Structures are given as C-alpha cells and as structure tokens.
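Worked problem 6 (solution included).
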Amino acid sequence: MRRGIPLLVMLSTLAVLACPTSASAEDTPATLEVTGGGLGITVPQGPVDLGTVTVSSTPQSVTNQLGNVTVTDQRGGTAGWTTTAQAVDFIGPSNTTISVSAPNSSTYHAPQASVIGTATATWNPTISITVPANSLAGTYTSTITHSVA
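Solution. The predicted structure is:
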C-alpha cells in the first residue's frame, strides 16, 4: 500500500504591469538663474594729510600711507579685476605746482584665482612725493582717482 505523502507546493505570483506597446516621451525645459552684484571700489574720504616737509635748498621727500582702499566684487565667478590709481599735480599757493613724478599712476591686477570665494580685497597704498628745492611754503592739494574694472 502506498501511502500518499502530502506535497506542499507554493506558487508565487508575479505582478506584471502592462506597458503600452507604443511609448512616448516629452521633455520639459528647466532654467536656473544665478544673479550677481556689482564690482565697486571704496577709497579714503579726504582730504588725506600726507605729511609735512620743511622748505630746503635740496629736494625733500614725504612718504605716507593713503588709507584703506577696498574692492568689493559681488559678480560671482572667476573674472578677476584690475584697479588703477592716478594722481594729478599738487597745486599750492599762487598756483605753484609740485609735479607728480612718473609714474603718476599705479595698477593692480587681481589674479583670477584670488576672486574665488573672496568678495573683498583691501590694501593701504603708500604715497611718496618729492618736493622740489626752494618750493613756496603752503598747503598743496592733489586728487587721486581710483577705478576698478
């Protein structure tokens, strides 16, 4: 006699999603805008006293710092920038002049790499003036123009 051994069979059912036979796709354009600010320069408010020299039969020099000059770059990216400072002759009593000797301008280039992650740069320029021998005593004024591009 044979005895039947119960056999347990498990069937698992897989769910198959039906896909249409003719599929289509559509693209949706998307944009993102990154805005930046400006490039600016801040200079010392004047007048700045560069110092005093005594009239002499020989040329005299005066050297002093102008005060902080700051460039703020909010444009983003790595464009870099260049600053320029240019002075005009000093005018004194009776319209006498003390010439701004060559070079009368200075240029600073910010390397592109220094702009990454840095929004400002500050420095304190040193100004040197040679006062000619036997200059007329008095106060002399000039204008130093700073620019950044």
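Discussion: Residues 39-44+61-148 form one domain.
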